[in-house]
Design brief:
By secondary structure, this protein is α+β, with helices and mostly antiparallel strands. The protein has nine helices and seven strands, in the order ββαββαβββααααααα. The strands form two sheets. It has a five-stranded mixed β-sheet, with helices on one face. A hairpin with a 2-residue loop joins strand 6 and strand 7.
Length: 235
């Protein structure tokens, strides 16, 4: 099938403002949008710039807006979006070139919630790892799936309005450790999330949940963190 791609282009070295580049490529219905973008870059315009790595929905590096929706280009089939496809960079982060944005502010928010296990207590006497029951592990299982693609955060109107908001992805990462029975730094993370740039900026729009390519119940996780802050108890 013939696919028409309308791609938002911007090169700060020579462009004063973004513009739309339009391209036609041949593609199979079961090809991915990423395949079509590769055809443009490899055969029509080598200056097109995009970020991608594994191309299998694991690394999260090729998040972009496809027909107005945050998606991973490597997971979206041509047959699911039609033969006219509009592609642009994710919103709320500075565009470096074409479809590549500066992810540093996103990762700064991620680092601010201490996204790692904290436990300085002595290991069990037998020297084995700290054990956890299946039910305790299940409590935070959903939020372990995050691949840091930024699709959720850059779909959030609160983040668009104020880039200082930590955003859904950072809250998801905090949730993963707050509810981990082995961790001992929940209070520090909750202090960060209780600030005016923290969890209370969420307006429960559900854009983040709809945008997540891993199917994480992002809004639910944010609500659970709010509940802990309101009640003072981790359940």
């Amino acid at each position: 099938m013939r696919v028409h791609l309308k791609i938002k282009r911007f090169n700060p070295e020579k462009d004063t403002r973004p513009y739309w580049g339009e391209y036609d490529v041949e593609a199979e219905p079961t090809d991915r949008v990423l395949d079509a973008l590769h055809k443009v870059k490899w055969y029509e315009d080598g200056t097109l710039t995009l970020r991608r790595s594994c191309a299998h929905g694991i690394c999260g590096s090729d998040a972009m807006r496809i027909n107005g929706v945050n998606r991973l280009a490597c997971k979206v089939l041509i047959q699911d979006v039609g033969h006219k496809i509009q592609v642009e960079p994710i919103l709320g982060l500075t565009v470096i070139k074409d479809l590549i944005v500066d992810m540093e502010p996103f990762f700064a928010h991620y680092r601010s919630v201490m996204p790692f296990l904290v436990n300085d207590e002595p290991l069990p006497a037998d020297g084995r790892e700290r054990l956890q029951s299946p039910s305790d592990r299940e409590r935070f299982d959903d939020t372990t799936k995050c691949i840091l693609c930024a699709a959720c955060t850059t779909s959030c109107p609160s983040f668009w309005a104020n880039g200082e908001y930590v955003g859904p992805a950072a809250i998801v990462q905090a949730h993963r450790f707050i509810f981990d029975s082995r961790d001992r730094a929940a209070s520090e993370r909750l202090t960060v999330l209780n600030q005016n740039t923290g969890v209370w900026r969420c307006r429960t729009v559900f854009n983040c949940t709809n945008a997540c390519p891993r199917g994480i119940q992002v809004t639910k996780a944010i609500g659970e963190v709010k509940q802990v802050l309101a009640s003072g108890e981790i359940r």
